[in-house]
Amino acid sequence: MSRVADKCLSxxxxxxxxxxxxxxxxxGEGKPKLEVTVHAATGQGSFGPGKYMATMKLGQTKFRTGLxxxxxxxxxxxxxxxxxxxxxxQDVVLKIRKAKKCTERTVGTVTINVKExxxxxxxxxVRRRYLVTPSxxxxxxxxxxxxxxxxxxxxxxxxxxxxxxDKPASLDESTKPKSAQAVAPPTEIDPRCSEQIxxxxxxxxxxxxxxxxxxxxxxxxxxxxxKLSVAAPHVLDNVVIKNIAANVPDATQYNLPELxxxxxxxxxxxxxxxxxxxxxxxxRLHFIRKWYVDEVCRQAMEAAPEVLEGG
Length: 311
Description:
Layout: H1 3-25, E1 33-44, E2 51-58, E3 61-64, E4 68-69, E5 74-81, E6 91-100, E7 103-113, H2 114-120, E8 128-131, E9 133-134, E10 142-152, H3 171-175, H4 191-231, H5 239-246, H6 264-303
Antiparallel strand pairs: 1-5, 1-10, 2-3, 2-4, 2-6, 6-7, 7-9, 8-10
């Protein structure tokens, strides 16, 4: 893309972003707002080289992220929809749009039922993957958009359209075991709340440990794949391995909120989420160990057993 085209494109994005922010300033403050965060696009295949943005629309309110290159579609940008109300039945529509010179076009769409998403996540900030429907039905790709939907009582974090983005944690950092939140509650805390806090912290620590085990297994199998790419590259073209690799579930990242000060009902919701995520990680860990690692090792043993030496 030429410098002139880049400047033209940047100008268009700047103007549209400014209009979004002006529209936001005119809305009322002090009431719960729907917050939608688009984190990243991941999966098998892509929409081709170029620069991409994500747009988020609810009703007549629309926001857009900054531009990212095709090889690094990580945005981590949020948009607030103050006009949303709890009885609103509208869907939030997210689109991945490709920018080219002074034009842009939609390459994929995700539609999220807000009410359903909030109920599934118990109104907590849980990052989930949604399958992108490509605009070009002939394109062979399986792309997911990672999105979290929650209700925010106050403005915090970054708004879509700003230039400075939080640097996303690497896979290694995000999957390392983290200390469970300190849970030494003051003596005046309701005993039932103390029990909930203790249960949450224990389950959350187990969840992080399982995710770390999954990450270690994936690192091991990826190391084997690297060796096989040299010793027996035809193994990596095996249809079974390709299908298994494409269907390995992603870990759901969840940041445990401050527990002390939560109501008993709020702690119950957090415990439900952590328990559900822990169960999901059990299934993910089983899939990686039983299917992915075992199949790659079996194929390696037949084609190039030397790659298994030394682990």
